[in-house]
Amino acid sequence: MIYLDNAATSYPKPDRVINAAVGAMRDLGGNSGRGSHKSAIKAGQAIYGVREKVAEMFGCESDRVIFTLNCTAALNTAIKGSVKKGDHIIISSLEHNSVLRPVHYLSEKGIVSYSVAKVNALDENETVKSFASLIRKETSLIVCTAVSNVFGTVLPIGRIGRLCRGRGIRFIADGAQAAGSRHIDMKENNIDILCMPGHKGLMGLMGTGLLLLGENIDVEPLMHGGTGSFSLIKTQPDVYPDRLESGTLNLPGIVSLGEGIDFIKGEGGVRAVHEKEKFLTDMLYADLSNMRNTLVYGTLSGKKASGIVAFNIKGSHSEKIGEMLSAGGFAVRAGYHCSYLAHKTCGTDKSGIVRISPGYFTTKKDIKNLIFYLNKIAMGKIL
Description:
Layout: E1 2-3, H1 15-27, H2 38-58, E2 65-68, H3 71-80, E3 87-92, H4 97-108, E4 112-117, H5 124-133, E5 139-145, H6 157-167, E6 170-174, E7 193-197, E8 209-213, H7 251-266, H8 269-289, E9 294-297, E10 309-313, H9 318-327, E11 330-331, E12 333-335, H10 340-346, E13 353-356, H11 364-378
Helix pairs in contact: 1-7, 2-7, 3-4, 7-8
């Protein structure tokens, strides 16, 4: 199998990531914060070490690094914990359902109202203007993805963050498709809260996510319970990260995430990962654009390049093409990609799209083999 579905989860995982997870289960038997014995202390030290790595990578303080189940959990906590009744939220027209659904839920319950800013993939000035035009006196929150999970469109989160900072609006960035492959610094980009999975670009295991808080940012907890601290009070602790980390943490997953970050650093850092993905996606974009009966979406030139290429073959539903590729030994994702807004915006809500997402371990030969096979499909030689 040639794996080209890294936007869903990175694969294969580096050996050091796997070894770290196994080692945590074998050697770190304690539960962090739930005991004073050596095993529990070692577990706590391991988790704290990963907090420091994450904080360094994304420009925040280590005690503002919150471990979650996944990016969806992080976004739900960030969004629902940031608003009050009567607030107004702005989101982009390319948001994942992990943003749209909690915002829409709050709207249906009569807690907030929301607007959708149209993204112009070819003109970031127009995108920023779209956000700015929707700001009202009750606008308290803007939520925006860094990279579209459907089309690979790169959004100007730095400029949107600056807009928010100037208007006193909280800014949540969804880094699901950017963390690990694009430089993100919370201070540079004026991000108040950054959410991401641990199992995609950061190379960790599934069941890991991150919610990163900027300075002086407070969030109401979505869950309440044991934190291993302040056990003799009835209310949730006010200190971070305890305030947002109720229940036992995923120690093997967190340790694997730390090793994923170390792997990226050892390979030359985020810039090296980005350059490799850019080379492969540029190659894909060029070949697909010249292929018969093929429609390619998005823009992949220059700084707009990302690790996602979306396309369709005329006259065929995307899921049919996905099935044909799977039969040929290629793992891609076809369909609707958990993003109602993106498909409605780009008119692919009836066909879906085929998404190719190379990763760090993808080779030039893998892409050539894929293009060869797709040419056969596009010419009707494979039915």
